[in-house]
From TrEMBL:
GO cellular component, one term: cytosolic large ribosomal subunit
Assigned keywords, A-Z: Ribonucleoprotein, Ribosomal protein, RNA-binding, rRNA-binding
Pfam families: Ribosomal_L25p (PF01386), Ribosomal_TL5_C (PF14693)
Protein name in UniProt: Large ribosomal subunit protein bL25
Gene Ontology MF annotations: 5S rRNA binding; structural constituent of ribosome
Location of the Large ribosomal subunit protein bL25 L25 domain: 2-87
Keyword Disulfide bond set for record: no
Family according to the record: Belongs to the bacterial ribosomal protein bL25 family. CTC subfamily.
Domain Large ribosomal subunit protein bL25 beta: 97-177
Quaternary state and interactors: Part of the 50S ribosomal subunit; part of the 5S rRNA/L5/L18/L25 subcomplex. Contacts the 5S rRNA. Binds to the 5S rRNA independently of L5 and L18.
Function: This is one of the proteins that binds to the 5S RNA in the ribosome where it forms part of the central protuberance.
GO biological process: translation
Length: 178
């Protein structure tokens, strides 16, 4: 479980001081809940996210344990350091938008024909409750040749899960290398 602290002060000076001490600024929110202004140790947060196996995970902030998902994050444009993260509380029975990762299984045959495998969408936005949320979309990519794509309409969505992207949007594909 990821441990965090509650931020007392919201001033620019306090935020800079926390960042200087190695903290990542975070906002935790949810439908009908009061926003929690928190901070996590940056290195611990990154390690935790790299090793997590589910979309939703638990955090402990100020003695409260919350099940959250990463909704959005901001990076420094120069150094690519994480500056801020928005965490949404995954409440049972409440429909919300979640970003589900896409995994390709196999090796496309188009790689032998001088093709390049590309993830057009690494995460697909879906609207559902936390109970119906798939952990990831597993796509078999062995049959893809140069110029072939797997589109949003080809995804197998579980019952109760909706995707609002255009069905013609590619998720993964093999493009011709120049």
């Amino acid at each position: 479980m990821l441990e965090g602290i509650v931020r007392d002060s919201m001033t620019k000076q306090a935020t800079k001081s926390l960042r200087r001490d190695g903290f990542l600024i975070a906002n935790i929110y949810g439908k009908g809940l009061e926003n929690v202004h928190a901070a996590f140790k940056t290195n611990e947060f990154i390690k935790f996210l790299k090793n997590k196996t589910t979309v939703a995970f638990d955090v402990n902030v100020g003695g409260n344990v919350l099940k959250v998902v990463v909704q959005e994050y901001q990076k420094c444009p120069i150094t690519s350091d994480l500056l801020h993260v928005d965490l949404m509380v995954a409440q049972p029975g409440v429909k919300a938008t979640y970003y589900v990762p896409v995994n390709g299984i196999g090796t496309p045959k188009g790689l032998k024909n001088k093709g390049l495998f590309v993830y057009h969408k690494k995460r697909v936005p879906v609207k559902t409750t936390i109970e119906n949320l798939p952990e990831s979309f597993e796509l078999t990519i062995d049959h893809l040749d140069t110029g072939d794509n797997i589109l949003v309409r080809d995804l197998v969505l579980p019952e109760g899960v909706q995707c609002f992207l255009d069905p013609r949007v590619p998720v993964v594909g093999v493009i011709k290398a120049k």
